[in-house]
């Protein structure tokens, strides 16, 4: 769904396909990811939408529509039992280990984690490269903004889906955490370093992901995200920041 101006759009249900793959992970593929032009403009600091120059509004509308059409959203995920937390190390039952001082606060009490790799697909990167080569810099900025909003919307859709899926097993979602992000623990800010994406990718068949982990530990396509959710029993207290 794409809306322009001050949003009067009604929310709508998304058709979702989720299928279990042979290697134990499942792929979640929403039919659509919503984008609203006013969200893109506000991300670019246009607070009073009634005063946006018509040319800028036209570019924002065109890039929002182009991005939404280019999206091919997919999330690969798998549930993995949690072996334990030792110091700054989160240990999965597979033997995989991740390192951050934030785990003790945000993952304590979890029985499992749901590890994921999500992407909006490669088309957006290709369009952005063409625009950069054509010196369409303003268009490229709005396109990238629409892409980041798309990843946020895909994350929300997946969270909603996962919440319902684990509820049937008496579980609920804890904190979502991703490599490359920082987390507050008391007065300290703790990082989960990007290098731990290697461990996340190691839990999947990389040929099926549609996402490549580069030597820098960044991902391609650019509009991709990895991480994990803690899964807690209903009776366990949920730790929040």
Structure characterization notes:
- The protein is an alpha+beta fold and 241 residues long.
- The chain has one domain (2-233): NADH Oxidase (3-Layer(aba) Sandwich), CATH 3.40.109.
- It contains 7 helices and 14 strands.
- The protein has helices at 37-43, 54-70, 103-106, 123-133, 137-167, 197-201, 206-209, and strands spanning 2-3, 16-20, 26-30, 35-36, 74-86, 89-92, 97-99, 110-119, 171-177, 182-185, 188-191, 212-213, 219-220, 224-233.
- The strands form 4 sheets. Strands 2, 3, 5, 6, 7, 8, 9 and 14 form an 8-stranded antiparallel β-sheet that branches. A two-stranded parallel sheet has the order 1-4. The protein has a two-stranded antiparallel sheet with strand order 10-11.
- Helix 2 (54-70) crosses helix 5 (137-167) and helix 4 (123-133) runs antiparallel to helix 5.
- The longest helix is centred in the middle third of the chain and has 31 residues, at 137-167.
- It is globular.
Please indicate the count of domains. 1
What is the CATH first-level class name? Alpha Beta
Using the 3D structure, state the CATH architecture.
3-Layer(aba) Sandwich
Describe the main β-sheet briefly.
Answer: 8 strands, antiparallel
Shape: globular
**Structure class:** alpha+beta
Keywords:
241 residues; alpha+beta; NADH Oxidase; two-stranded parallel sheet; globular
Write the layout of secondary structure elements.
Layout: E1 2-3, E2 16-20, E3 26-30, E4 35-36, H1 37-43, H2 54-70, E5 74-86, E6 89-92, E7 97-99, H3 103-106, E8 110-119, H4 123-133, H5 137-167, E9 171-177, E10 182-185, E11 188-191, H6 197-201, H7 206-209, E12 212-213, E13 219-220, E14 224-233
Parallel strand pairs: 1-4
Antiparallel strand pairs: 2-3, 3-5, 5-6, 5-8, 6-7, 8-14, 9-14, 10-11, 12-13
